[in-house]
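Changelog-adjacent note: as of this version, every example in the card shows the full chain rather than a window. The one below runs 193 residues end to end.
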Amino acid sequence: AKRMNEDDQRVIRSGQPMFNREEIVATNGDEESRILLTTKVPLFDSEGHVTGIAGMARDITKRKAMEDALRESNRELRKSIDRANKLAWDADAANRSKSEFLANMSHEIRTPMNGVIGMNDLLLSSNLEGEQRHYAEVIDASAKSLLTVIDDILDYSKVEAGKLEIDTVDFNLHVLMGDFAELMAERVGDKQL
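Full-length structure tokens:
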């Protein structure tokens, strides 16, 4: 009441209106305080002297509560967005690390595998008996299959890096399946399938 009276006196003394002042008003009973948006204007007599004031107040309690709730929601949303951005950045960093690991490991494995293939090629170019040649050919096919797997791992890391190039390669399905069957024949025989 004291502040409201001071506002009234200021309008009367200055002759200047007061627009849209937020005032908290205590209510009777168990209700919470109300928030009013108040406008006060001076009333003048015919000689231009202030003789009083006219005031109007609008209850904006619900609007203020909604504004507060909206501010809190926005604050929570900003926190959630910050957390999501951090998680996305962490996931992206982990993904990059995985891709780098795959690329490095495929290159590290490729080097000794090329040595195995090269030495086996030398063995195949020598005079081998039938059974020895067969084993060397199985080694060659297995090593080349493993090299294909390594290439696939490298391709996977290229896909993630956006650097994959697709090549069209002709192949004979009958020969491919025959090579696969030959590789698996020993395992199948060992298990007596």
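Structural remarks: The chain is about 65% helix and 15% strand.
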